[in-house]
Amino acid sequence: MLRAQSGVVNESGSGRDLTWVCAQSTARLSSDPTDRVERQVGTLPAVGTVTLPQDSGATHLAWQGHRGYRRPRDTRLPTVLLVFFCGVLVWVLIGPKSTATVATASTSGHIVSATGTPGASPSPQPLPACGIGDIPAWHGQLSDWQTTLLDTTFELSSSYAPADLVPVSEAGISGTGEVRSIVIGDLRQLKDAASGDGVNLTVNSAYRSYLDQSATYDQATASFGPDLAALAAAKPGHSEHQLGTAIDFGGDQDWLLSNAWRFGFVSSFPVDSSPAFTCYKYEPWHYRYFGRDIAASIHSSGLTPREWLWLNYPPPPGYLIVPTPVPLPSPTASPSDSGSQSPLASPPTA
Predict the structure, then answer these.
(1) Closest CA to 220 of 203, 245, 202, 238
(2) Taking a C-beta distance cutoff of 8 angstroms, is the pair 280, 232 a contact?
(3) Does residue 90 belong to any structural domain of this protein?
(4) pLDDT of residue 36
(5) Which of 58, 196, 277, 347 is 20 to 30 A from 114, alpha carbon to alpha carbon?
(6) Number of domain units in the chain
């Protein structure tokens, strides 16, 4: 190993030049740790100039040959990592617990509390028991027509009014009323398929505005009393007819039940699930248009539209129902469900 016996370090100006002058060097050679021999190897009259960008580099070069020199360990990176992990640990242990809320239900089926994790999809909760309330539907925009859940609790706003309503006659079907334009194509094909099977379908009722439904509900209340009206007619804002995608059909109800879903229409209040799971009495004439894909999914599930929508499009995180709905009345009698028409002169259907 070469040892510098004399050296001079000069740093001048911004160039920080290092001049290393070696006047004499010696070499120590040792083949045996107990027998060291130092030999003169001559004079090295060399002058070298090295330009380094930083003083620390120059110092390192000037003294790297000095016996006993130890290059200092760079502890900056380990220190930064240690501080980072300590910060993360402290945040996990004592930091604020950020949570969102997901609706949960009591044993009675009513939503009463909310807990959950932000960003997570809400777990399916028990379908709320039917009750009377005025809670805004969580999918209540015009663009949500396929996923809006309406019943005796959830409602549309009074200003909900589709702008694309067209007469049902544009589908070539007899009857009066209007539906959204998105319904016309499949309504026409439904009517044509029924005609091909010798079934004559008609439209008894279609779109109803908030005010129209208010008049219908008042008529039902006056005719049958509030208890029966609650099962036979929807309060304003709670009717699927306000969506512009519900139709009360006249014609062969058995044919409709077997075939309507293939054209995007699903029975909202089937006989084996009403009113327990639909909140309204059995209405074989009432169908809601969902489009063919969703209609096929509802049909294959064996669920009512209300159940299917609750399962597949549940309330979003943080959606808490207040107040708790009041249970529906249990009337001792109900209007006749036979035939394709409602027993009232103006069908008070949901």
Answers:
(1) 238
(2) yes
(3) no
(4) 43
(5) 277
(6) 2
92: in domain: no
Which residue range is the domain that position 227 belongs to?
132-327
Helices (H) and strands (E) in the chain, counts: 7, 18
CB of 128 closer than 8 Å to CB of 314: no
Dist. CA 81–CA 83, nearest whole Å: 5
DSSP state of 23: S
Going by pLDDT thresholds of 50, 70 and 90, the confidence category of residue 305 is very high
Question: Which amino acid type is present at position 317?
Answer: P
- Per-residue CA distances from 40 to 3, 93, 240, 278 (Å): 11, 67, 107, 107
In this prediction, residue 131 carries a pLDDT of: 86
Radius of gyration of the chain (CA): 42
Q: Which two tokens stand for residue 138?
A: 């969580």
pLDDT at 324: 60
Q: Supply the pTM of this predicted model.
A: 0.63
Strand locations in the chain, DSSP E?
A: 2-4, 17-22, 25-32, 35-40, 46-51, 102-105, 111-115, 131-132, 135-136, 154-155, 165-167, 174-175, 178-180, 202-205, 246-250, 265-267, 286-289, 326-327
Pick the most confident of 67-71, 87-91, 163-167. Answer: 163-167
Burial class (CB in 10 A: 0-12, 13-18, 19+), 320: middle
Q: Which of 38, 63, 88 is the last residue of a domain?
A: 63
Give the position of tokens 């070298």.
48
pLDDT of res. 348: 56
